[in-house]
Structure formats: C-alpha cells, structure tokens
Amino acid sequence: MTPPTKMLMIFVDESDQWDDVPLYEAILRRLVKFEIAGATVQVGVMGFGSHHKIHRKRLFGVSDDRPVTIIVVDEEAKLRNAIPEIRPLIKEGLMLLTDVEVIP
After folding, report:
1. In a domain, 104, yes or no
2. Considering the domain boundaries, does residue 37 fall inside one?
3. pLDDT reported for residue 57
4. Cβ atoms 32, 68 nearer than 8 A
5. Among 6, 12, 19, 96, which residue's beta carbon has the most beta carbons within 10 A?
6. Helix ranges, 39-103 (H)
7. What whole-number distance in Å separates Cα of residue 87 and Cα of residue 19?
8. Which CATH number covers residue 25?
C-alpha cells in the first residue's frame, strides 16, 4: 500500500521577497532540501486575496504584483515535515494541503 499523497498549494505575490531572492524561489530551494518529489511555480494572469486588490499584468507586460502559485505533490509525511520550514517565510499568503489521487 502506498502512503497517502497530498498536494500543497502556496499562494504568494510575484513581488514577495525573502532576503534578496523572490519568495517563490526561496520556497523551492527549501523544498529541494526535503527531497520533495516535485514542485511547479505558476504566475497567474489575474487574482485577488484577502485585501481584495486585483492583481494583473498591465500594459507592456509591467506587473501589478501578479499572483504566484506553488504546487507541490508528495507523500503526506514529507510535506508535513517541510511545512514548518516554509511557513515562516510567508508573511501574507495562503497555504492549502489537500488529498490528491495520482494517476499513473
């Protein structure tokens, strides 16, 4: 029997920083240290969060702080071990952990 698989989704803004690197990059670098199976960073076209400010791509490609989603899939235990290392990096944002079924 295979261990339960989960999906961790992390929502941040494109302009969020950790030290001198983009927050999404800092998060991915930490995930690699936990030998997570894989992660993908996606930049959203448009979105809003708890502040209800709409973020979108503007004229000539200039960003209005677009939303970024980091999607991570692995065994539940591995993700739960990584979360305490990632959570302090996120000042504003949202993390979701949900069940998934991996289709081979």
Report:
1. no
2. yes
3. 62
4. no
5. 12
6. 76-86
7. 15
8. 3.30.70.120
DSSP 3-state assignment of 2?
coil
Stated as kind and residue range, the H or E segment containing 66 is none
What integer pLDDT is reported at residue 61 of this predicted model?
Answer: 57
Nearest to 8 by CA among 20, 30, 19: 30
- Give the C-alpha separation, 86 to 64, whole Å: 25
Total number of residues shown for the chain: 104
**What range defines the domain where residue 34 resides?**
5-99
Question: What is the distance, to the nearest Å, from the Cα of residue 54 to the centroid of all Cα atoms in its chain?
Answer: 19
In whole angstroms, what is the distance from residue 95 CA to residue 24 CA?
Answer: 13
Residue 1 β-bridge partners? none
Looking at the structure of the chain, the number of domains it has is 1
How many C-beta atoms lie closer than 10 Å to residue 39's C-beta? 17
